[in-house]
Design brief:
The protein is mainly beta. It is built from three helices and 20 strands. The strands form five sheets. Strands 1-4-16-6-14-17-18-20-19 form a nine-stranded mixed β-sheet. A hairpin with a 6-residue loop joins strand 19 and strand 20. Helix 2 crosses helix 3. The two termini are about 20 Å apart.
Length: about 300
């Protein structure tokens, strides 16, 4: 059960199953990741919007990793326990022409700088925004070879922008290839469901994760146990991504039914009814075109306690 440290540099901004690992660990180990902001340390607190327009967009997401896990292979599940996500006192949000959920209405470039206290920011008065830092991207390398842009999420995790992945949460991912090759980044000090303007509060962060490998455990896509301190308590959260939001919502609901049948013994039709009366469907992100991400959440308080892995 060793502890490791991994500096941000060199970051990478593409998924690539052929990228050599910067660190190889054992199941049960903990890694302290240094993560740059999503711009790859190009944005700074005094930056003007004109300067912002000149940054290298090819460096966006600037992930730390990859980390290989001994003996990980296809058909395994990688468990990632989020122990801590600590921001560094500042962040930024932007409007980028041609991007965002309301890109037709908000078509002019804009850059906003946030000053972050320990638990809130008062930068956008009169609002007082609570902070719950998390990594917008946590994923294993996809099974395809060659470079893949980090913007679309998938069964491997990636750019899911699921705000429930704050400290105290656990993420389960299906391993796609040898070693798993996990990377993380795109930290947000706060984010609303949808991330509608294209950003949360983008920020550099120090992130501590513990990894456990579960051999030969099938999993169709990302699964989250949200933290007990989450706004509505701990939940089971099934994450689905697709090129349209309805397909993503259907896929997440379908997997939640399967989860209830496999782990709590429900008949499929009873699981379907339970989803209809108790499940929350939420848009985690609507701006990572061409993919939308939907989270289907069911409060753990309504089910007998279970350890799934």
């Amino acid at each position: 059960m060793a502890e490791h440290e991994l500096s941000a540099e060199p970051t990478h901004s593409r998924w690539n199953a052929d990228l050599p690992p910067r660190l190889t660990i054992d199941s049960g180990d903990t890694v302290h990741f240094e993560c740059q902001d999503s711009s790859g340390a190009q944005v700074h607190p005094a930056m003007s919007v004109d300067e912002f327009q000149q940054i290298d967009r090819g460096r966006i997401h600037a992930l730390t990793g990859p980390v290989a896990i001994h003996d990980a292979g296809v058909g395994d599940v990688l468990q990632i326990d989020v122990l801590e996500v600590r921001h560094k006192g500042w962040g930024w949000s932007s409007v980028i022409p041609g991007l965002g959920f309301l890109k037709e209405r908000f078509s002019e470039p804009f850059l906003f700088h946030w000053e972050l206290d320990a638990e809130v920011t008062r930068s956008l008065a009169p609002a007082i925004v609570p902070l719950r830092p998390f990594c917008g991207i946590m994923g294993v390398a996809p099974h395809e070879h060659g470079e893949i842009r980090t913007r679309p999420p998938g069964v491997f995790g990636g750019n899911m922008d699921v705000r429930e992945l704050a400290a105290g949460a656990t993420l389960y991912l299906p391993v796609q290839g040898p070693g798993a090759l996990f990377s993380c980044g795109d930290a947000h000090a706060a984010q609303g469901d949808g991330e509608v303007c294209i950003n949360g509060i983008e920020c550099p962060a120090d992130v501590t994760l513990r990894f456990r490998l579960h051999k030969s455990k099938p999993l169709a896509g990302p699964l989250v146990e949200s933290a007990p301190s989450d706004e509505k308590g701990s939940s089971w959260v099934v994450v689905g991504s697709s090129i349209d939001s309805i397909s993503a919502a259907k896929a997440a609901t379908d997997r939640m039914v399967d989860l209830l049948v496999a782990n709590w013994g429900f008949e499929p039709v009873h699981a379907y009814l339970l989803c209809s009366v108790a499940m929350k469907l939420q848009l985690s992100q609507v701006v990572n075109e061409p993919m939308f991400t939907v989270a289907a959440a069911l409060a753990k308080s309504i089910l007998p306690e279970r350890t799934l892995y």
